[in-house]
């Protein structure tokens, strides 16, 4: 590959050697160190490739061996330049294009951010912009180490960051501390003295597994919305079985219950359809950064229309993005037409919506035990409504109510209040 490129840059020839003794010509070339390749015989003559420098050394050999040498083809950059030497505008444009690509390669045209979960791309880009790191800045002005330090200083939960420049793209990779979310939850749990699990709807308890806290209901019990299911207050008993204090904690349990919910979905019997005209008006545009240049003015006398846009960004390779793009915008007019759904169509639409609703409920862990939904048709609309018997997770969190410590009777008959202050 490299040898072929060097040959093209220097230029080379394809020649035909004929005469009384072409073999003497080949031996003389070998003796003088003239390199030839791809030698083939053709009707008593020989075809071969030779460099321009080697061709200039052939004159004494041709004279000595009495052979005849004919140039059949010319290859390489020198001959290309000679052939188009009068086309100055072409070469000026080519040189200008190369210079423009080189000039654009000195700037950053795309900032790629990856690894961020808690912070959005816009948040990171806004922060970088506050540090004068934006699209269109010079690559020589980018301090990758400074970007990393600034990110870690600004965001405490970013444990690792990396910045690198490839082509005209700035890659920023970050890794957030996932434990920070858990620590925030733990801190809030420490600040709270306790949490109850309360019913978020009327239901019948079907399953209950308590990991921490005091169960207040059992499987089979009917509960109302707001009832305490698991209390975050645990009683502390003495040897006599008397309550001497309370310990508050964050209750934790898996609770499922059976309940009924109301489902209703409406659908208008009429709808507006689009009748597209057999007319399309196109115009082209070029985008350079934030500027757009359009070609082909158009008049749009239509009240209702759609605009379809197709845009292609220019880039060289994978990482060499350019701040240019081109595309077309197509205007397609249409007329709004009022239509009505048929009986089967309206049933299919409502059935499809109900199926999607059931699928979403299933994704949330809700099991549908009984379906009493029916379709009703009114004057202007149809509706699917009824009740669903479901099995679902029950419970929400509320702070535990703190109550005063109980008063107990001591051995001397006096009343006292037991406290646990940690002193013996």
Automatic annotation (TrEMBL):
Keyword set includes Transmembrane: yes
TM helices/strands, residue ranges: 89-109
Compositional bias per record (Basic and acidic residues), positions renumbered to this chain: 413-424
Superkingdom field: Bacteria
Annotated keywords: Membrane, Transmembrane, Transmembrane helix
InterPro entries per UniProt: YqfD (IPR010690)
Location of the region described as Disordered in the Swiss-Prot/TrEMBL record: 398-424
Name of the protein described by the UniProt record: Sporulation protein YqfD
Organism in which the protein naturally occurs: Dorea acetigenes
């Amino acid at each position: 590959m490299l040898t072929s490129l060097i040959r093209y840059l220097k230029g080379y020839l394809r020649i035909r050697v004929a005469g009384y003794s072409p073999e003497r010509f080949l031996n003389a070339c070998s003796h003088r160190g003239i390199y030839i390749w791809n030698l083939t015989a053709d009707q008593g003559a020989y075809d071969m490739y030779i460099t321009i420098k080697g061709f200039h050394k052939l004159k004494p050999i041709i004279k000595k061996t009495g052979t005849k040498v004919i140039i059949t083809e010319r290859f390489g950059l020198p001959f290309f330049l000679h052939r188009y030497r009068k086309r100055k505008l072409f070469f000026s444009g080519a040189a200008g294009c190369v210079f423009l690509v080189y000039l654009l390669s000195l700037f950053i045209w795309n900032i790629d951010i990856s690894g961020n979960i808690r912070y959005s791309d816009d948040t990171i880009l806004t922060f970088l912009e506050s540090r004068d790191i934006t699209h269109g800045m010079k690559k020589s002005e980018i301090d990758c180490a400074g970007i990393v330090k600034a990110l870690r200083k600004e965001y405490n939960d970013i444990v690792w960051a990396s910045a690198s420049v490839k082509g005209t793209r700035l890659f920023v990779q970050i890794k957030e501390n996932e434990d920070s979310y858990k620590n925030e939850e733990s801190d809030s749990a420490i600040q709270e003295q306790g949490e109850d699990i309360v019913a978020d709807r009327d239901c019948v308890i079907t399953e209950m597994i308590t990991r921490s806290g005091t169960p207040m209901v059992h499987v089979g019990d009917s509960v109302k919305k707001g009832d305490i299911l698991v209390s975050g207050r645990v009683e502390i008993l003495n040897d006599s079985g008397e309550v001497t204090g309370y310990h508050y904690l964050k209750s934790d349990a898996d609770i499922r219950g059976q309940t009924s919910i109301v489902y209703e979905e409406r659908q208008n019997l009429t709808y507006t359809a689009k009748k597209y005209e057999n007319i399309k008006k196109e115009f082209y545009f070029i985008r350079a950064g934030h500027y757009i240049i359009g070609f082909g003015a158009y008049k749009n006398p239509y009240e209702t229309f759609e605009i379809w846009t197709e845009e292609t960004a220019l880039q060289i390779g994978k990482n060499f993005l350019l701040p240019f793009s081109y595309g077309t915008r197509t205007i397609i007019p249409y007329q709004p037409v009022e239509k009505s759904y048929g009986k089967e169509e309206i049933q299919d639409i409502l059935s499809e919506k109900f199926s999607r609703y059931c699928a979403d409920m299933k994704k949330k862990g809700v099991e549908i035990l009984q379906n009493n939904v029916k379709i009703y048709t009114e004057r202007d609309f149809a509706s699917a409504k009824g009740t669903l018997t479901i099995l679902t997770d029950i419970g929400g969190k509320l702070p535990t109510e703190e109550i005063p410590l109980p008063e107990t009777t001591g051995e001397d008959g006096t009343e006292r209040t037991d406290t646990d202050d940690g002193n013996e």
